[in-house]
UniProtKB/TrEMBL annotation, chain A:
GO terms for cellular component: plasma membrane. It is found in: Cell membrane. Keywords: Cell membrane, Membrane, Transmembrane, Transmembrane helix, Transport. Gene3D superfamilies: ABC transporter involved in vitamin B12 uptake, BtuC (1.10.3470.10). This is Vitamin B12 ABC transporter, permease component BtuC. SUPFAM superfamilies: ABC transporter involved in vitamin B12 uptake, BtuC. The chain crosses the membrane at residues 61-78, 90-110, 116-137, 144-165, 195-214, 234-267, 279-300, 306-325. InterPro entries: ABC_BtuC-like, ABC_transptr_permease_BtuC. Belongs to the binding-protein-dependent transport system permease family. FecCD subfamily. It comes from the Bacteria.
From TrEMBL, chain B:
It comes from Lutibaculum baratangense AMV1. Gene3D superfamilies: Nitrogenase molybdenum iron protein domain. This is Vitamin B12 ABC transporter, B12-binding component BtuF. It comes from the Bacteria. Keywords: Signal. InterPro entries: ABC_Transporter_SBP, ABC_transptr_periplasmic_BD. Residues 1-23 form the signal peptide. PANTHER family: HEMIN-BINDING PERIPLASMIC PROTEIN HMUT, VITAMIN B12-BINDING PROTEIN. SUPFAM superfamilies: Helical backbone' metal receptor (SSF53807). It holds the Pfam family Peripla_BP_2. Residues 28-281 form the Fe/B12 periplasmic-binding domain.
Amino acid sequence: MTPRATALVYLPLMLLVALLFVGSLLVGPAGIGIARALEALWSGGADPIVLVMQEIRLPRAILAAAIGAVLGLSGAVLQGLLRNPLAEPGVVGVTSAASFGAVLAIYSGLSASLPFALPLMAMTGAFLAVFLVNALAGRSQDTLTVILAGVAITTLCGALTSLALNLSPNPFAAAEIVFWMMGSLADRSMDHVRLALPFILVGAGLLLATGPALDGLSLGEDVARTLGIGLTRTRLLATLGTACGVGAATAVAGAIGFVGLVVPHLLRPLVGSLPSRLLPASALGGAALVLTADIGIRVVMPERDLKLGVVTALLGVPFFLWLVLRARREIS
Amino acid sequence: MRLLRHILVAAALVAAGASGAVAGAPERVVSMNVCTDQLAMLVAAPGQLVSISHLTRDPATSALAEEARAYPIHHGQAEEIFLLEPDLVIAGTTARPTTLSMLRRLGVRVEQMPSASTLGEIRDNIAHMGELLGQPERARDLVARFDERLRAVRGRPYAPPLAAPYYANGFSSGGRSLAAAVIEAAGYENLGTRLGLEGTAPVPLEVLLMHDPALLILGTHDYDAPAKAQEIFAHPALERAFGRARRIEIANSAWVCGGPFTADAVEALALRRSKTARAPR
């Protein structure tokens, strides 16, 4: 695909993300006029509209875009690295491990005294999960092995999360299992942006850096080696990038699944399968998908706190099943 | 033989009644609900209340948590309660039906009392508790003191300022809730009632900020362990919108259950209103 044709995909995607970002700022239970809402974004003072726009809607939109971008990106990287069409942070077990790390940080009281313990513990969980999947799946590039390893980690971390929350003496903790399993951006604040955004950006940078190596890897491991591509270095970049980006994202928004699965598959027909082109497109696509889902929640069921992961799962699972069917057809 | 024993027991009860409390007053009362526990503790004669629920020792829900330490506790199990040999069990309306029917089958007298959601119902509940325990005098005294305290804070302003209680997870109280009754008795308008909410319902932070209430009422949330539910209280928007002068802490226990202690909340809110009325914000 020529650079011009690639630009033809990137530009509309960027425009779409920008539009959805503004749309996200304009949707909310308070019902503020468009002109006043946008004006309040730039003005000072403690007027209620200013507070709603700057302290409630802006952080929500920023987090939706950043989290969607890093989820889409890490899905594309994991699919390229493991050469597995079903790989994505949720399926591989990274998000649930990050959730468990975040749960330990919050409910032990650690994050109350040390705010940065929250993203750091979530990132540690995510890192251990990527490491475990690599160790369990080993050299085998078998699709099934990776997925099974992911299922094992997800089940274990889900159970441990439930256990930790049920053991908490706080009566609200048990109800928060849903948040950690399904994710939400409701009532997130600038504090959460400050905690997560730096790590998400670093993670996204590391993930984007794997692009050229993944291009080589798409021709097969042996070819990649003869091209002088350091496989260990690529694996390390992908592992650290996923742990950092997905870990920080999960720490503030809970587990949001299937974004990393759906987005690369939707965009591959448009930008071609060359990873270095697919990665930036997947970041934009992920941002667009999570922004859309978060707007949808607030438009369709404004008075119920519908979880973000519910919407992405409703979109993602049929897609996942279709991929499974296609994989079966290819085997037979 | 059995019949004879019943007659003897009845005679003994009548004799006991004649010597002190009202005739037929139960002697071993077990209360099973945080709300009935607290009323029973205030109304019962010494030794009359044998056991209360373990929840009543929790300061997050019970206004008499300290006093509750003096009573033996139970965990709401039928066999546990039956072994206490009560002649009256008082439960709330939300008690497990299986437990209550089991106790009734075992021949225990079980009475249920709804929780109060207006100040009038608090009065009714205290009086009803007095009848059940055979202590109408003590109940009448409690109601009289309660009414006196409420009368002292009357004087509803012409334009009541808006107040909004805000609980964990962004919930607030709507109409037909004890919190709304307290807020209105203290001379405020309740935000949840204005929004048309019923009972305890979520109010998005955006909506709270846009209505800009004059007073934000925060519960005391003194759980040992943190939870995400309480993160909302640290939201920068809430911090920026409501300075110290525009927020007040009222223990949730003041209106989780209605009781004489509910007047504490009315007084605290009314005092704040009279102060802010003099010094405009």
